[in-house]
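Students often ask what a 'structure token' actually looks like in practice. Rather than answer in the abstract, let us consider Adenylate kinase active site lid domain-containing protein, a protein of 210 residues. Its sequence is given first.
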Amino acid sequence: MFVGAPLSGKGTQANLLSDLLSIPSTSSGDIFRKEVASGSALGQRMKSYMDKGELIPNDLTTQLLTQSFADPAYTAGLFLDGYPRNLSHLEIFDRILASLDRKLLVVIHFDVPKETLLGRLEGRLTCAQCAEIFNALLVGPSFTTCTKCNGPVLKRPDDNQSVFERRFEIYQRETLPLLEALRQRGLVITLQSAERPHTLTQQILSILSD
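Now compare that with the structural description of the same chain:
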């Protein structure tokens, strides 16, 4: 499981490791956005919270994640990004794992200074089709097509400073206590994720091989 502030690189690492190890990766955000895109009643309820950068209520989260985690594709393992986000979520997550006879093995905490996160926000681009993340400062202003799936690349409407500040405040208030609870279980390893993505990937591979 990957935990960190918004823009800390969780999704990038989940995707890189998934490709390298042939283990599926997903995030609560990907699952939620897929549900929203489906146009379902549940997706429409979720959209109102996501557009404001607020956490999805527990009852909606539980309903969707239980059916998602039961997917046979995840039987051999899963890199999970963005859930649980608080102590209340952790209780739900524990129950979901127990019901599926699965176990949380390790929690990678991505620690990044807020100034670095704000710098990443400015250039963040996302593929509308596969959710791959790019940075305009690295790929250039004319970059419009995903190199992974050829889908359109754009700036998400929730990638703005006001939404970031709200999400960062929620992270500090709700996710840091979650990290402490997981640390007490002996599961947390903290990495300084201002490092280059491939350097971080090698560090995580070393952790997973131990």
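One point worth highlighting: Residues 161-184 form the longest helix (24 residues). Ask yourself how you might have guessed this from the sequence alone, and why that guess would often be unreliable.
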